[in-house]
Amino acid sequence: MGLLDRLAGLLGLKKKEVHVLCLGLDNSGKTTIINKLKPSNAQTQDIVPTIGFNIEKFKTSSLSFTVFDMSGQGRYRNLWEHYYKEGMAIIFVVDSSDKLRMVVAKEELETLLNHPDIKHRRIPILFFANKMDVRDALSAVKVSQMMLLETIKDKPWHICASDGLKGEGLQEGVDWLQDQIQAMKI
Ligand SMILES: Nc1nc2c(ncn2[C@@H]2O[C@H](COP(=O)(O)OP(=O)(O)O)[C@@H](O)[C@H]2O)c(=O)[nH]1
Ligand SMILES: [Mg+2]
Q1: Is 24 annotated as a binding residue?
Q2: Cys-Cys crosslink for 95: which of 16, 28, 86, 111, Cβ 3.0 to 4.6 Å?
């Protein structure tokens, strides 16, 4: 059973589909986290093997996920921005152990929040302060300060410390996201 089974089941009853975007820099732990979350009945869709732009897609009866790296000096930006419109919830993964690249992650977040397809929508954003197991990793509070999350006023957001390898912290995040999606009354 994946951690999302309960959420997928709940939405399946309503016959609704929710599209979740999972974003973050490469190496932040997106693939690891998503694999932990994947419901047992998930079907992997077209994994586009574009060189330098890695996108993963999978789908259950009621949830569909698109996962991609916001890296590559924006070279692939127009490819990934294409997916913003359909996103109804965002999971943004940050590597808490990589202080240098957190500045880049912060800039990518800023660009995301200012995008016309995101800016005026109340999309819930779940942040994972991932790799909390690494020595010297920043705490979720510190990550939230570095990423200037308090400046996000017009969207519900939440941050959880996570260990993608062990799966720790993921359920708390998914529970929050589930509440947000339920509140969306879709
Ligand atoms: N120590 C530690 N390593 C992690 C964690 N999550 C992912 N990793 C490792 O970080 C690397 C990048 O992970 P991956 O999921 O491929 O990142 P992606 O590029 O964002 O999809 C891999 O070697 C993972 O095993 C974590 O919570 N703690
Ligand atoms: Mg990946």
Answers
A1: yes
A2: 28
